[in-house]
Amino acid sequence: MNHTTNRRKFIVEATLVAALALASWFSSAAADKPPVPGRTPARIILTWTGDPTRSQAVTWRTDTSASSPQAQIAPLTPKPKFQDSTLTVKGTATPVALPEGKSAAQYAVEFQDLKPATKYAYRVGDGSTWSEWNVFQTASTRPDPFRFIYLGDAQNDIHSLWSRAIRAAYAAAPDARFMIYAGDLVADGFDDHLWGEWCEALGFISAMVPSLPVPGNHDLHRAPDSTETSDPLLTPPSWRQHFALPMNGPESLRGQSYYLDYQGTRFIALDVNAFGGTIQPNSAKERVAQQEVAWLEKLLRDNPNRWTVVFSHYPVYPIAKQRTRFVEMESRLVPLYDKYHVDLVLQGHDHSYGRTHKLRGGKVVSDSEAGTVYTVSVSGPKMYEVAPLNPELFAKTLAGSQLFQIISVSQERLLFQAYTIDGSLIDSFDLRK
Length: 433
Ligand SMILES: [Fe+2]
Fold this sequence. Notes:
Blueprint: H1 3-31, E1 42-47, E2 56-62, E3 70-75, E4 87-90, E5 92-97, E6 103-111, E7 119-125, E8 134-137, E9 146-151, H2 158-172, E10 179-181, H3 192-202, H4 205-208, E11 211-213, H5 237-242, E12 258-262, E13 265-269, H6 283-301, E14 307-311, H7 327-332, H8 334-339, E15 344-347, E16 353-356, E17 359-360, E18 363-364, E19 373-376, E20 394-398, E21 403-409, E22 413-420, E23 425-432
Parallel strand pairs: 9-10, 10-11, 13-14, 14-15, 15-19
Antiparallel strand pairs: 1-2, 2-6, 3-4, 3-7, 5-6, 7-8, 9-21, 12-13, 16-19, 16-20, 17-18, 21-22, 22-23
Helix pairs in contact: 2-3
Bound molecules: fe (ii) ion.
């Protein structure tokens, strides 16, 4: 062949390769159509209802009801052509009635039979309109080191001002295995618009990092003109629709108080709305409190984990100015924390930061003794002045700043670091075993 023939052959081959590449690109692009307004999955939130080593739950929302809600999952691979290895899981749908005659739908799926310590890609949708492929990681069956994020109340100006706190937290610890929310996620749990703000502030973060929330007083809050007649200790439907949580709590508070064992640590979400606060005492409230104490004691007594972390909303030792004591928590919860050596109690409600020394029986003990550290924090913009009722118990307090906390856990050491949202480390301590 002469030079001209060779050149023609090269051009034909190059054109063929380009055409095939283009055809392949078009076919893969066609498989992933652009989102359809109203049908596009939004408010995607990862949680757990079961074992974090083998399962993962996810909820999402669309503005129009999908007839066939579903999710797809595949082991994470860097190769973009993995659709052949996906598994499809059918979802459940709950219609949501909104003000002004509008409606939406919430969906839930639980991925089961997963491999421990494995990254997965997943998407949610209706079979034709899908979310992007998000990623999560299952827990290890061994007590391997991990970190998590803890946040105090978001509550106000969630879209405009809480967003920067949650994004700073994620940027500081993108490998955090989950985020603990110590109550008052929104100012009025019955207001769907506020849940929309909360999800908007998180963006893709809630689709990548599981949420572990516990209800605060505002999450149960009824507006003064509310005609809501449900049990005042029960979270609104929005709570249950957005968070698919373990139903292993006391009978009256399933999905509000719950526990989860994660790589050698027992995490207990304790809804303390029955132990004081804004809901008036009555026999129903006392019955719930009794159930909860019995449940908590059993969890603490039969606990094979090395570390124990409780998270709840009201602080056992208040720090905001003009607060009164939560006598019920001091008399009924602290003895259990002491008896069973709870390591850490993460709390909110006081719109400021506080961290106690190691305490036992309401008194400071030395670092080498068994005891519990209690913390209060805030991530949203509402701020209270600090004036602890028991200032001698506190190693550190701070008023007036939005914060996030990163907690790193290994078998030997639990490291707690508190940051203001500009990234300044304002407090740090560790516990050792
Ligand atoms: Fe609160």
